[in-house]
Amino acid sequence: MDAIIIETLIKIVVVVLIFSALGGFGTYFERKILAFLQRRWGPNIVGPFGLLQIIADGIKLFTKEDIIPINAERGIFIFSTLIIAVAAFTAFVAIPIYPQFTVFGYTVRPIVIDVNVGLLFVMGVMAVGMYSPLLAGMSSGNKWSLLGAARAVVALLSFEVITGLSILAPLMLVGSLSLIDINAYQMGGIDNWMVWQQPIAFVLFLIAGFAETNRKPFDLSEQDAEIIGGYHTEYSGMKYGLMMIGEYANMFVVAFLVSIIFLGGYGEAGSIVNGEAVGAWGGIWLILKVAFFFILFVWVRAAWPHIRPDQLMWLAWKVLMPLAVVNIVITGIVMMA
Amino acid sequence: MEHLQVAHPYFGAFAMMVFTLVAFFVTITLARYVSLKLAARNTEKLKLSIYECGPEVTKQPNKISAQFYLFGLLFILFDVEIIFMFPWAIDFKLLGWFGFAEMLLFILLLAIGFIYAWKKGALEWHSIK
């Protein structure tokens, strides 16, 4: 029992360290890829290829003057930055981030908690992160922040419905909410990936993922020309940094979910595909899939303009939601027949 | 990966929440302390006021368009539906035709409400002319 507790605590520290570091590198890669797509250099002064830019940014964020506006509700203003980061990292506990492997004769299962409602847990905890923009906007005492918060929350609420509905059809096929079971359902190579059976659900879930992480085509909360910085207009220094860490961690959660639910995840260590052992390669494939979706997030940001709030509502409620319900009904009929 | 039965499966989630909460709070407090020592400070009232274009600001009420609340209500309606559908989707094969027909009936009832909301214009963004 004690061994399990210690193992869990070590896993927690490792997950937090990996994904806060990836959040920092995420900002670097985002700027570098964006610069590449726009034929600029991007960060290239600090260190080789500008790699030390992250450290420079960190020092700057850490030593910046700590400003809390006089009209802000101080407690909520600070606490709301914690919510998004804590929710994003707590969502990671139910995600298998690598296949099972053995090191020094000790079998490591790279999932912190193995609960039978894994997917529901992840989605629920991610939804708690929604309080962060709402409270940040309402406590700032600024109209821009308030408008940004209202827009962000309405977008998140609408697309929460799409996420839930689009995920139902794959769940009907698998019959389990555990991400390990969903991964095991798709074992045996590229033909068994969920995306071939549920292409509509895949597209819907990906679109909803962009909206849930406040990324470009749906980033209503951060349209500079209309509402300045949205809900984090008044944030600076490490409080802003923490919000960014939370947002990037959320992006990684969505990337992991899409990869595991629809693109076969990590396969299964030691299983045989077309006469080849996939073992350790499964983990590397999963990392590549997650990296692809991270690049896709940036790519879309470079390629698309953002849309208006009324267009977003039209898209969510009048197009995507009926489509998701029809997808569920068709899946049910096909499974029954 | 096989499933592993443990006595308290949610311990990890709770520990993660406490750990991240403490770690990030310490980070913020530390940054606050460091900036107090290092950064230049300006306590002029206009500097500490919110992002505006010059005037000294007064406390503003948190009033937003009622349209946002309408979407909040719609969300509650449809998200409760989805939570109800999750257990059904998991046991879909077990429930068979009977469960499928029941859920079709439920979706039909919700579709009537959805069409009503659509016809009433609840899904549109009203302009304030």
Task: Write structural notes for this entry.
The complex is a heterodimer of chains A (337) and B (129). Chain A is mostly helical and 337 residues long. Chain A has one domain (69-336). Chain A has 13 helices and four strands. In chain A, a hairpin with a 2-residue loop joins β1 and β2. The longest helix of chain A has 36 residues, at 2-37. The N and C termini of chain A lie far apart (47 Å). The radius of gyration of chain B is 26 Å and the shape is flat. Chain B has four helices and no strands. Chain B is mainly alpha-helical and 129 residues long.
How do you describe this structure in short?
With 337 residues, chain A is mainly alpha-helical.
Secondary structure layout plus pairing:
The complex is a heterodimer of chains A (337) and B (129).
Chain A lengths: L1 H36 L15 H11 L10 H18 L9 E3 L2 E3 L9 H11 L2 H10 L2 H32 L4 H7 L8 H4 L1 H14 L11 H4 L9 H26 L9 E2 L2 E2 L3 H23 L5 H28 L1
Antiparallel strand pairs in A: 1-2, 3-4
Helix pairs in contact in A: 1-11, 1-12, 2-11, 3-4, 3-5, 3-11, 5-6, 6-9, 6-13, 9-11, 11-12
Chain B lengths: L10 H28 L6 H4 L17 H25 L1 H29 L9
Helix pairs in contact in B: 3-4
Indicate the percent of residues in helices of chain A: 55-70%
Main beta sheet strand tally, sense and closure of chain B: none
Mean pLDDT of chain A: 85
| Shape label of chain A | globular
Q: What is the CA-based Rg of chain A, rounded?
A: 21 Å
Order of strands across the main sheet of chain A = 1-2
Cα-to-Cα separation, first versus last residue of chain B: 59 Å
Order of helices and strands of chain B: HHHH
Low-confidence stretches of chain B: none
- SS field, number of helical segments of chain B: 4
What proportion of the residues of chain B is helical, as a percent range? 55-70%
* Helix-strand makeup class of chain A: mainly alpha
Overall number of domains of chain A: 1
| Content of β-strand of chain A | under 5%
